[in-house]
UniProtKB/TrEMBL annotation:
UniProt-listed PROSITE patterns: ADH_SHORT (PS00061)
Pfam families documented for this protein: adh_short_C2 (PF13561)
UniProtKB keywords: Oxidoreductase
Name by which UniProt lists this protein: Glucose 1-dehydrogenase
Source organism: Fulvimonas yonginensis
GO molecular function annotation: glucose 1-dehydrogenase [NAD(P)+] activity
InterPro entries per UniProt: KR_dom, NAD(P)-bd_dom_sf, Sc_DH/Rdtase_CS, SDR_fam
Catalytic activity, EC: 1.1.1.47
Highest taxon listed in the record's lineage: Bacteria
Length: 248
């Protein structure tokens, strides 16, 4: 029996990359999935089509997580379509690297608005509908541990995700709602390709520092998220799971 049968999951930023893999993985385990996207309708529709073609249930919902009204509307669409909400995956995120001298207000606000404020707004809206046994999974990053040069703002946002995860695990724990984070290392996605990371010295350095000898693939992260969404992880809350092939 599928481990998430009868459950409803919302994945933010799920039109491509890690988010798309998570949506597909949750659906494969039996969950009905809301595929949120900010701008890539075609990507989100493709994920939904893939899920439904395999007999799953999914719907694409547009919305900017950094806007309170949109966050409420995304959650409202999930509950309105499927009648409940059991799993929230806060995957939406952006990243830009810049040395200290190049940091601007725009650089700061762009990343904090999506990576931190967006996570809080969607979780706030979702918490009204989550019941006992629900699972909130935040996608952090290994950068909060390895703190690479040029990533002051991005690392700050993901360090904030670590802290928020711990706080919300305490706040929502009395309602028997679990909150955990998955912190990936470098993962091969459309984003890392377009940013020029794949094939770069940075890529080769990451492989050299990874005991398992490669960078991650979206499915590597998705399977861990599916575990955290299921009752198999019922005794995990407030944890940060570093998904980086042993890189530290």
């Amino acid at each position: 029996m599928n481990k998430l049968a009868g459950k409803v999951a919302l994945v933010t930023g799920a039109s491509k990359g890690i988010g798309a893999a998570i949506a597909r993985s949750l659906a494969a385990e039996g969950a009905a999935v809301v595929v949120n996207y900010a701008s890539s309708k075609a990507g989100a529709d493709a994920v939904v089509a893939d899920i439904t073609a395999k007999g799953g249930k999914a719907v694409a919902v547009q919305g900017d997580v950094a806007k309170a009204a949109d966050a409420r509307a995304i959650v409202g669409a999930a509950v309105g379509t499927f009648g409940r909400l059991d799993v929230l995956v806060n995957n939406s995120g952006v990243y830009e690297f810049a040395p200290l001298e190049a940091i601007t207000e725009e650089h700061f606000r762009k990343q904090f608005d999506v990576n931190v404020l967006g996570l809080l707004l969607v979780t706030q809206a979702a918490a009204e509908h989550l019941g006992e046994g629900a699972s909130v999974i935040n996608i952090g990053s290994l950068v909060s541990r390895i703190v690479p040069p040029g990533s002051a703002v991005y690392t700050a946002t993901k360090s904030a995700v670590d802290g928020i995860t711990a706080v919300l695990a305490r706040e929502l724990g009395p309602r028997r709602i679990r909150v955990n984070a998955v912190n990936p290392g470098m993962v091969e996605t459309e984003g890392t390709h377009s940013a020029g990371f794949i094939g770069s010295d940075f890529h080769q350095g990451a492989v050299a520092q990874t005991p398992l000898g490669r960078i991650g693939q979206p499915g590597d992260i998705a399977s861990i998220v599916s575990f955290l969404a299921s009752d198999d992880s019922y005794w995990l809350s407030g944890e940060q799971l570093y998904a980086a092939g042993g890189m530290r």
